Amino acid sequence: MNEHPLMLLCAGACTSIGLSVAATLAAFEAGISRTVEIEEVAAVASQLELLPPEMDRASRCHWLACAALLDALEPLSEFRELRMPLLLATSDEHLTDDPATLHAALAGCEPRITLERPERYHFADGRSAWFSCMETAARLIADGQPLVAICAVDSGCDLSSLRALASRGELLDDRHPDGIIPGEGAAVTILTSEEGARRLRRTPWTRIRAAARGREQRHFRQDRSSLADGLTSVLRSLRKRQQGWRADAIYSPQPGVVYWSRELTMALLRNAALCPEPLNVVSLADGLGDCGAAGAALAVSLAALKIHRGELARVLAYGEANLGHVGACLLETP
């Protein structure tokens, strides 16, 4: 990826605070958030108002993903026909999700777009799943695919998911001050090469300068305190491969609980050369809640739009799943 960086051509999103990536960014930067009290679990969640509270998880994910896809395709509306593989990034904890049904639903969202299903198209790696998809996208593009789409989607706002979180004591409430506010959302990113962007006569939103993945053995779902070894190694890999590269901001999708905050602090102290001065960490969970597997893709999409607008030049984006999968990438002005 260092010799031939990937280009993020454009992106789309759907979240509890915006039905597009532009609307989500505007609301987030205005300090807007949407939390709804869920009487069944005596806690709050960041639900999309348009979706009925009783809608099940699969239906919510399908709706969010289709909305994000249509938003992502809007900048390419002048092309009457497009064909590209579609990769899916989903939860590492809802293994009953049906990726084939979701892929088919997305393939039917826009008739002028043909979304193909590669042999390996689904990655259930939670908040780091987008980075797993990106590695596969890089190989597909190197093999001649002009465009590759990645859809990352998740919801923790259906009643079944909320009850499961409540039973584990993970929801933010008076008894659990270190709990989370569940969120929901989807992001679709369309990747290409530098040559692909030139052929389409489009200016990409951002260049993905480098990326790395790893694994945290002392992950969120086990009992020992994290030593941040997984995130540290991922950031160290990026730092050594891109010496002298320093971010203007760090975009994080992690919930604002002690485990994740402590881990990020330790990893950044060991990789200070990558960090902005002064430190500038943008926490998406402050406005969107915990969007799970959609989190990293949303972080990348919002950061990419900021870079595209000239408001940032370099961003470090990362994501770590509850079961320990870690990914990060360096975004910069193309």
Automatic annotation (TrEMBL):
InterPro entries: Thiolase-like. GO terms for molecular function: acyltransferase activity. SUPFAM superfamilies: Thiolase-like. This is 3-oxoacyl-[acyl-carrier-protein] synthase-1. It comes from Nannocystis exedens.
